[in-house]
Amino acid sequence: SGDSAPLKEAMAVLQHHDAVSGTSRQHVANDYARQLAESWGPCEVLLSNALAQLSGSKKDFVFCHKLNISVCPLTQNAEKFQVTIYNPLGRKVDWMVRLPVSEHVYLVKDPNGTVVPSDVVTVPSSDSQDLLFSASVPALGFSIYSVTRVPGQSPQAYDRHPRSQKPW
Amino acid sequence: SRVLVIQNEHIRARFNPDTGLLMEIENLDENLLLPVRQAFYWYNASMGNNLSSQASGAYIFRPERQEPLLVSHWAKTHLVKTDLVQEVHQNFSAWCSQVVRLYPGQRYLELEWTVGPIPTGDSWGKEIISRFDTTLETDGLFYTDSNGREILERRRDYRPTWKLNQTEPVAGNYYPVNSRIYITDGKTQLTVLTDRSQGGSSLGDGSIELMVHRRLLVDDARGVGEPLLEEGSGLWVRGRHLVLLDKARTAASGHRLQAEKEVLAPQVVLARGGGVPYCLK
Fold it and tell me: If you compute the radius of gyration of chain A from its CA atoms, what whole number of angstroms results?
């Protein structure tokens, strides 16, 4: 069973001005990070149980914390996966999903099973690939998109060659 | 043409072909065009000097000089254009890069900056800013939010509640920016939304700056007893600034709705395909 109390406790401790503004020694800052990281786990179990109950399907939900640096072993290796997007706002949003993948072509379907436009772009600085597709998510609700790798095809590289400026 | 351009239905951004720096933003819906030059600079952190022994540190921001130094006069650029995204990758230095991005339907320019590890081999602490310079005549005024709710008017070298004797021309004009900072000439408004709290200011008319990262070499003698100096090679930080160009009259509806989407952004949970039916019973 999941538990959000540890995360509440960590967030309560991190109301201290040292945690908010970084005016602490390094080892204290490291300990703040440790408290947060340790309390994510039980909260993710809670979220998984809620999603299983709300979606009527029990899955091994995975939370990728490094999407902002294009790291997520599941999306980079799986041939097919599901993306559940939760919208905490009180209004519907259209949101560009960006996930690290391997160099292939992918088929993305919306909750109704309709194929939605998607792209795979190469991230120049790291030569990794990101899958992009636009998701529509209801107010205070979630949408589940399914992604399948299309065997045997590789994405058209749209990237142009780097343009080197005249060095000053 | 050699000018680098990215655009969607609402926004067009042009980059200087020689330097690779952003040089202009256009709001196509409002027919607004504003020269905007954006670059990264760094303040040399004070270690105390003849005027005051106060050093820059965890509690104190105090640059050695008023003028920050450019991280680089130019950027190596890489253009990516697909149906779902147009972006310019800018590489300023080994420890400073940025992606300027537009998705279809987006009414703001997204600047995803990546800064660090900040080099300190020259024995100087550094405080890195992203600075936007425009032609807006702002008459010493700029606006910052307070926890995403109330917007406060700020006037350079001035305090509304007491007669300020300004002794720190840079730090004395820095204010907390929790979600946004903007400048306006009464007709046109340039707003920058942040994805976290940062220090910010407008030290010159038409200019906005936000501090994105710091790495300091001495303690500021305010109690921590340790410089703001990450262990090992140091941390690198990635974040986003969303830049909105609007008519002053209608700007609030744009940045308020977008800031909500930023703070309460959708969350992604992944799972392998399939799954077994599940019901409470």
Answer: 20
**Contact residues for B11 (Cβ-Cβ < 8 A; gap 6+):** B25, B26, B27, B28, B102, B106, B107, B108, B109, B245
pLDDT tens digit sequence for A16-47:
999 998 899 999 999 999 999 999 999 999 99
Per-position DSSP letters for A26-40, written without gaps between them: HHHHHHHHHHHHHHH
Is A14 at the interface with chain B, CB within 8 A?
A: no
In this predicted structure, what is the pLDDT of residue A165?
Answer: 44
The H or E element that residue B257 is part of is: helix B251-263
HSE, side-chain direction, 13 A CA sphere, residue A91: 6
- Token pair for residue B178? 């929790």
Closest CA to A131 of B111, B263, B82: B82
The amino acid at B117: P
Query: CB A158 to CB B80 under 8 A?
Result: yes
User: Which residues in chain B have Cβ-Cβ distances shorter than 8 Å to A93?
Assistant: 261, 266
Distance of residue A36 Cα from the nearest chain B Cα, in angstroms: 17
Query: Where would I find the beta strands (DSSP E) of chain A?
Result: 57-58, 61-62, 80-87, 93-101, 105-109, 115-116, 118-123, 128-137, 141-150
Query: Can you tell me the mean pLDDT for B242-247?
Result: 98
Q: Reply yes or no: is the peptide bond before residue B117 cis, omega within 30 of 0.
A: yes
Q: CA triplet B52, B58, B61: central angle to 5 degrees? A: 45
Between CA B183 and CA B193, with CA B188 as vertex, the angle to 5 degrees is 45
Min Cα separation A139/chain B (Å): 10
In angstroms, the CA B185 to CA B206 distance is: 8
Q: Which of A67, A121, A165 sits opposite B80 (nearest CB)?
A: A121
CA atoms of B147 and B217, how far apart (whole Å): 30
Minimal CA separation from A129 to chain B, in Å: 12
* Contact yes or no for A165 and B105 at CB 8 A: no
What are the distances in angstroms from CA B129 to CA A83, B12, B24, B42, B43? 36, 24, 19, 6, 8
For chain B, give the percent of residues with pLDDT over 90.
Answer: 93
Cβ of B76 within 8 Å of Cβ of A87? The answer is no
Beta-carbon contacts below 8 Å between A and B: 165
Asked if B27 and B11 touch (Cβ cutoff 8 Å), the reply is yes
